[in-house]
C-alpha cells in the first residue's frame, strides 16, 4: 500500500467536500456505469462502492426484482418456491449506488456514453457490461420465442421456470418428459443434468410410471461420472441420457406437437424442456464487444473488452477461458473486475488476479455434488491453476453427499446476501 | 494538481496512490462461500477478522491433505505459500 488508510480517508473527505479532483477526470468523481443487475453486475457495483466511495456507480437494470437461476431447478422439481429465488435492489441502492430501472439500448464507445430506453444518455469513464445470456432464437430449427411458451427453456429464471413446473404438475403419470441440452458453451454447464436429476426426483416421488430422456448435443458434460453414478443409484429405468454419438443432438422441434427431432428419430413429449443455444446478452452485440462466436473476448486481468477500450465484460457474457458460466464465477469476476476498474481509474496498473469457482449441483434434495476450480491469467486467457480444483470424490458415503447438499444451500444464502442483502 | 493538493495542505500525496490497495490475488473470491456478513447462517466460517496464523494453517492443512475438506482441499491447492500469507493477512484486517 503506497498510502496509509488515514491518508486515504483524508483524501476521501476532501473529495466528498468537493475540494480535490481525481487525476484523469477534472473536477468530477469518476463515473462507472454497470449494465445488468445479476450476480455479476450487482456484485461489481457493490464491490466498486466498497473499494472506493468516491466513484459514482450507476447500475442499469430493467427489472425491479431479480430471479436467481441457481436453485431454480429445485423450483421446477417442486422442492422450492420461486419467491426464495427473488431479490430486490433496495440494499444495493442503500449502498449509494444509483439503480436506474431501464434497458440499455445503445453504447457509444468513443463518446463513452450509454443510451437508455427512454432516450436518456449516461456518460461513463468506464463501462461494465454484465448482460448475461440471450437465447439464439431460430438457431435450433423451430425454436423461436413463441415455441418457448409450449416448450419452455427455463434458462432465464422467472415465468419460464414456473411454466415448466406447471407443465410437469399437469402431466399424467406415465408421460414422457424430454430435455434437450445444448452444445458448449452455455450458461451453467452442470445445469441441464441437475435439472434432469430433480425432475427425475419429482417423477419418482409423484409420477413413477413416467420417463425422462435427456437428448444431448455433447458426448461429455460437467460432473458426468458423479451424475451418472447417482442416476444409476437413484433413478434406474427412469432417466435416460442420450449423447451426441448415440443420436442425442436435437436438430429441430415442433412446438405444436411438442416433438423433438434428431437424426435418429422423433420424440413426442408430454413435457419438453428445450435448453437452446445461447449468446451474450443483446447489449454486448450492440456495444461491439461480442465477437463472431456471440460471446465477449476479454483481458483476463482487467476484464476489459479486447474489442472496445473502456468497456469491461463480466459474467456469462464473457469468454473467461477455463471459468464456467456460473453465478459463482460471475461473482468472482465481478469483484476482481471492480478492483481492477478502481485501480485503472486511479491511473495505476492492476495486478494479476486469481479467481475461484465452486458449483454445487443437487442430484436429489439430500444429495449434492460439486466442482471447484482456481484460475489465473496465462497466455492471455484465464486458465486452470494446475493441480487445483476438481469434482467431489467418486466414492463417498451418502453422509458426504448430504453434507454437500447442505453446503449448496448455504452457498446460495451467502452469495445472495453478498449481492443483494 | 499536485500544486492544488499542496495548496490545501495535503503535501506530497500522489493521487494515483490514493486508491485503496487492491486485495491480494484470490482474496475477493472467498466470499462466494465464506459470508462477509455475520447475519448469514452458514456452516462455512466467516473469515473477516480471523487470526492470520489460523487462516494460514487451515489453508496449508487443506492443501497438504492433513485436513479433509469438502471443496477447500481442491481450492487450497491453487494457492502458493506467499498467496496464502497475503490472503490471511488481508482477512485478518477485514471487519
Number of strands of chain A: 25
Runs of chain B in which pLDDT lies below 50 for 5 or more consecutive residues are: 1-17
Q: Cα distance, first to last residue of chain B?
A: 34 Å
**Quaternary assembly:** heterodimer
As a percent range, the share of helical residues of chain B equals: 25-40%
CATH superfamily of the largest domain in chain A: FAD/NAD(P)-binding domain
CATH class of the largest domain in chain A: Alpha Beta
Q: Specify the overall morphology of chain A.
A: globular
**Outline type of chain B:** globular
Mean pLDDT of chain B: 85
Radius of gyration of chain A: 22 Å
The CATH homologous superfamily of chain B is called Cytochrome c-like domain
Structural class of chain A: alpha/beta
| Fraction of helical residues of chain A | 25-40%
Key attributes of the depicted protein:
heterodimer; A: 421 residues; alpha/beta; FAD/NAD(P)-binding domain; 2 domains; five-stranded parallel β-sheet; four-stranded parallel β-sheet; 25 strands; B: 95 residues; mainly alpha; Cytochrome Bc1 Complex, Chain D, domain 2; globular; disordered N terminus
Explain what this protein looks like in three dimensions:
The complex is a heterodimer of chains A (421) and B (95). Chain A has ten helices and 25 strands. Chain A has 421 residues and is an alpha/beta fold. Chain A has two domains: 5-62 and 102-134 and 279-351, FAD/NAD(P)-binding domain; 137-276 and 359-415, FAD/NAD(P)-binding domain, CATH 3.50.50.60. In chain A, the strands form eight sheets. Chain A has a five-stranded parallel sheet, covered by helices on one side. Chain A has a four-stranded parallel sheet with strand order 13-12-11-17, covered by helices on one side. In chain A, strands 22, 23, 24 and 25 form a four-stranded antiparallel sheet that branches. Chain B has 95 residues and is mainly alpha-helical. Chain B has four helices and no strands.
Amino acid at each position: 500500500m503506497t498510502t496509509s488508510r488515514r491518508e486515504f480517508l483524508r483524501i476521501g473527505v476532501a473529495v466528498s467536500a468537493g475540494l480535490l479532483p481525481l487525476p484523469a477526470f477534472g473536477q468530477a468523481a469518476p463515473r462507472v456505469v454497470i449494465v445488468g443487475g445479476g450476480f455479476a453486475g450487482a456484485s461489481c457495483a457493490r464491490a466498486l462502492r466498497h473499494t472506493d466511495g468516491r466513484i459514482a456507480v450507476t447500475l442499469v437494470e430493467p427489472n425491479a426484482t431479480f430471479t436467481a437461476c441457481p436453485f431454480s431447478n429445485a423450483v421446477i422439481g417442486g422442492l422450492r418456491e420461486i419467491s426464495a429465488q427473488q431479490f430486490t435492489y433496495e440494499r444495493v441502492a442503500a449502498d449509494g449506488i444509483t439503480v436506474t430501472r431501464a434497458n440499455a439500448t445503445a453504447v457509444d464507445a468513443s463518446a463513452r456514453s450509454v443510451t437508455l430506453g427512454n432516450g436518456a444518455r449516461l456518460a461513463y469513464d468506464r463501462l461494465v457490461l454484465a448482460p448475461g445470456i440471450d437465447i439464439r432464437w431460430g438457431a435450433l430449427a423451430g425454436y423461436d420465442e413463441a415455441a418457448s411458451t409450449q416448450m419452455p427453456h427455463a434458462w432465464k429464471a422467472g415465468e419460464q421456470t414456473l411454466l415448466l413446473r406447471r407443465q410437469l404438475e399437469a402431466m399424467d403419470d406415465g408421460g414422457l418428459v424430454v430435455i434437450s441440452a445444448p452444445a458448449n458453451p452455455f450458461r451453467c454447464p452442470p445445469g441441464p443434468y441437475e435439472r434432469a436429476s430433480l425432475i427425475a426426483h419429482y417423477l419418482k416421488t409423484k409420477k413413477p410410471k413416467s420417463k425422462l430422456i435427456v437428448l444431448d448435443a455433447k458426448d461429455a458434460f460437467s460432473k458426468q461420472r458423479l451424475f451418472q453414478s447417482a442416476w444409476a443409484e437413484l433413478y434406474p429405468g427412469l432417466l435416460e441420457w442420450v449423447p451426441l454419438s448415440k443420436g442425442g443432438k436435437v436438430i429441430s422441434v415442433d412446438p405444436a406437437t411438442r416433438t423433438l427431432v434428431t437424426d435418429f428419430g422423433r420424440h413426442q413429449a408430454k413435457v419438453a424442456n428445450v435448453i437452446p443455444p445461447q449468446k451474450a446478452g443483446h447489449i454486448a452485440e450492440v456495444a461491439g464487444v461480442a465477437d463472431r462466436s456471440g460471446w465477449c473476448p476479454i483481458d483476463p486481468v482487467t476484464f476489459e473488452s479486447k474489442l472496445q477500450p473502456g468497456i469491461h465484460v463480466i459474467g456469462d457474457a464473457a469468454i473467461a477461458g477455463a471459468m464456467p458460466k456460473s453465478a459463482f464465477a460471475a461473482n468472482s469476476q465481478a469483484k476482481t473486475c471492480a478492483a481492477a476498474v478502481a485501480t485503472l481509474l486511479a491511473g495505476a496498473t492492476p495486478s494479476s488476479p486469481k479467481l475461484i469457482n465452486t458449483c454445487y449441483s443437487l442430484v436429489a434434495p439430500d444429495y449434492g455434488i460439486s466442482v471447484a476450480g482456481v484460475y489465473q491469467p496465462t497466455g492471455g486467457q484465464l486458465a486452470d491453476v494446475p493441480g487445483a480444483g476438481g469434482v467431489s470424490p467418486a466414492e463417498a458415503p451418502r453422509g458426504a453427499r448430504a453434507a454437500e447438499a447442505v453446503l449448496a444451500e448455504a452457498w446460495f444464502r451467502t452469495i445472495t446476501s453478498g449481492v443483494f442483502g | 494538481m499536485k500544486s492544488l493538493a499542496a495548496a490545501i495542505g495535503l503535501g506530497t500525496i500522489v493521487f494515483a496512490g490514493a486508491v485503496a490497495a487492491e486485495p491480494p490475488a484470490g482474496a475477493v473470491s472467498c466470499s462466494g462461500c465464506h459470508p462477509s456478513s455475520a447475519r448469514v447462517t452458514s456452516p462455512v466460517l466467516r473469515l473477516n477478522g480471523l487470526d492470520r496464523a489460523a487462516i494460514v494453517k487451515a489453508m496449508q492443512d487443506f492443501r497438504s491433505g492433513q485436513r479433509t475438506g469438502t471443496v477447500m482441499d481442491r481450492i487450497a491447492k491453487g494457492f502458493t505459500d506467499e498467496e496464502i500469507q497475503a490472503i490471511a493477512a488481508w482477512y485478518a484486517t477485514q471487519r
